[in-house]
Design goal:
Blueprint: E1 2-6, E2 16-19, E3 25-29, E4 40-47, H1 50-65, H2 72-80, E5 86-90, H3 101-119, E6 129-130, H4 140-144, H5 156-171, E7 179-185, H6 188-198, E8 204-209, H7 212-223, E9 228-232, H8 241-250, E10 255-261, E11 263-264, E12 269-270, H9 273-282, E13 286-290, H10 302-305, E14 309-313, E15 324-330, H11 331-336, H12 349-359, H13 368-384, H14 386-406, E16 422-426, H15 435-444, E17 447-448, E18 450-451, E19 459-463, H16 470-489
Parallel strand pairs: 1-5, 6-17, 8-9, 8-10, 10-13, 13-14
Antiparallel strand pairs: 1-4, 2-3, 2-4, 7-15, 11-12, 14-15, 16-19, 18-19
Bound molecules: pyridoxal-5'-phosphate (PLP).
The site of pyridoxal-5'-phosphate has 13 residues, from helix 6.
Length: 490
């Protein structure tokens, strides 16, 4: 006797299941508060033995004598007191209930494409666990989405694919009436460089540098000869808001822009962009955010956070392929940048935006197959939901940090302002320790780890993004323990 169940989808009107420690049914209800714990959601497919079915009928008949009708969920709960009914939970089941038009829209635009994509996979690809900060581990459906018939990217059909991508990327962080997504072929840095080189006039830009990615923005500003001032802040501690405000106040010219990284991927430090956005609002400063390693995991609301321009890419938390980066811009602000004299051709943001508006095409050849993978990755992100994705990542992160602490290692950046995306771990002090040897040990087992990126500090990095769960992190920890024990033995 078995009930099919799935993880919670939050669609509304679901039946919650309470199961015991052996995964047998204990209770079921649409009212959460009637249950002691919730382990899954009822799908509606149940397989019963004939004997159990008869018991269910007997139960119904008894109540029927008293003129009571029951629903079958209640009947199942009643018989589960006498017989074990196993709750078979599938976390990855693509399904949904269709009760109304919203459900139907979700069924046709998100769930059905995922079912179709899964059906199209000829065989599974060897799964490597990438613990580097992107490109991240992808699903097979994203990998296979790239196998498509050849198409010229100037065809209308491809334009529609790109319009879908642009609109849906915007919706993750803002209202498409006010914000727009401009796509580029290129790695993430292309999007950051596009913003900095295209939207800043002769005014002053303050760039917050609390790690190598902030430093990279300074380097771009330097190359383009922008009027920039670097604000240095600790690589491990949160930005001191008072100090930043005083810094801005002391600048004699008018500060028109402020640029910063959301999650500093070198350390995992998460900058409080909402607080800084408030400061920018008061001072009428346009805020530019490199959200490469936070977008599609850490929830972002561009309007609420007062972000004018945001840069991100396909291959990090979106769990797509490398090769597409994009800028999400406040339309009204972007329109005004038409006046600024272009500093480059390929990365010119306004021209790329305008051309796409007019022609539904990119100005130059897009990475066609990568776009199809991105479309699939977007649908899978919608299916999981950004908050749920961040919950999954956070659970992996807690597993990771608990584990390394247990193994006697420490990591940079306290939890209060940690992104829970990537962790800089202090290298073991053992004299036999060697990053390259450790890397190769993991690599042979299908895990890719990453070196550190902070001067002076001896660290290595573990990212917990991509299509992985805390279970893979547990396997990683198990291997790490083996490696560390090996050091002791020598
Ligand atoms: C990944 C990343 C980038 C972009 O790196 P690319 O190698 O150009 O893709 C930029 N900023 C941050 C914060 C990143 O994490």
């Amino acid at each position: 006797d078995v009930i099919l169940a799935s993880k919670l989808n939050g669609a509304g009107d679901e039946v919650y299941i309470e199961a015991d420690e052996n995964n047998n049914l204990k209770n079921m209800s649409k009212q959460k508060e009637e249950l002691n714990s919730i382990s899954a959601e009822l799908v509606g497919l149940t397989k019963l033995s004939y004997a159990t079915f008869q018991r269910l009928c007997d139960e119904a008949n008894t109540l029927f004598q008293f003129n009571q009708t029951i629903d079958y969920e209640y009947g199942l709960v009643k018989i589960s007191e006498k017989a074990n009914v196993y709750v078979h939970k599938l976390d990855n089941l693509a399904w949904c209930e269709v009760d109304d038009e919203d459900h139907w829209a979700r069924a046709t635009t998100i769930v059905y494409p995922i079912i179709k994509a899964r059906e199209g996979i000829p065989h599974t690809v060897k799964r490597n666990i990438l613990l580097n900060p992107g490109p991240a581990t992808t699903t097979d459906t994203v990998k296979y989405a790239q196998i498509v018939e050849d198409i010229c990217p100037r065809e209308k059909e491809f334009g529609e694919t790109m319009e879908f991508i642009s609109a849906e990327l915007t919706k993750f962080v803002g209202n498409p009436e006010k914000y727009t997504t401009v796509l580029f072929g290129g790695s993430g840095t292309a999007a950051v460089e596009s913003i900095l080189s295209s939207v800043i006039d002769n005014g002053t830009v303050v760039i917050i540098n609390n790690g190598p990615y902030g430093e990279r923005m300074c380097k771009i500003a330097e190359i383009y000869g922008l009027n920039y001032l670097e604000y240095k802040s600790s690589a491990e501690q949160a930005i001191d808001m008072n100090d930043l405000e005083i810094f801005i106040k002391k600048i004699s010219t008018n500060v028109s822009y402020l640029a910063l990284v959301h999650c500093e991927t070198s350390t995992g430090l998460l900058n409080d962009i909402e607080q800084i956005g408030k400061l920018c609002a008061v001072k009428n400063i346009e805020m530019i955010v490199d959200a490469m390693s936070s977008y599609a995991a850490v929830p972002i609301d561009m309007q609420k956070m007062n972000i004018s321009y945001l840069a991100a890419s396909a291959n990090k938390n979106l769990q797509g392929m490398a090769g597409v980066s994009f800028v999400i811009a406040n339309k009204a602000r972007l329109e005004k940048t038409e006046q600024i004299k272009p500093r480059n051709l390929y990365l010119h943001l306004y021209d790329q935006y305008r051309y796409f508006q007019m022609n539904k095409q990119m100005r130059f050849t897009p990475p066609v197959q990568t776009m199809y993978a991105l479309k699939q990755a977007i649908i899978e992100t919608q299916w999981e939901g950004i908050e749920k994705r961040y919950e999954r990542y956070s659970k992996s992160w807690t597993t990771l940090t608990d584990g390394i602490t247990r193994l006697g290692l420490t990591y940079l950046v306290p939890e209060t302002h940690h992104s829970k995306i990537i962790t800089s771990i202090i290298e073991p002090s053992h004299k036999k320790y060697n990053f390259d040897i450790m890397h190769d040990f993991f690599y042979k087992q299908g895990f890719t780890i990453y070196p550190g990126k902070i001067d002076k500090l001896e660290t290595f990095r573990i990212a917990n993004i991509g299509d992985i769960t805390y279970r893979e992190i547990e396997r990683f920890l198990h291997l790490l323990e083996q490696y560390l024990n090996g050091l002791k033995g020598e």
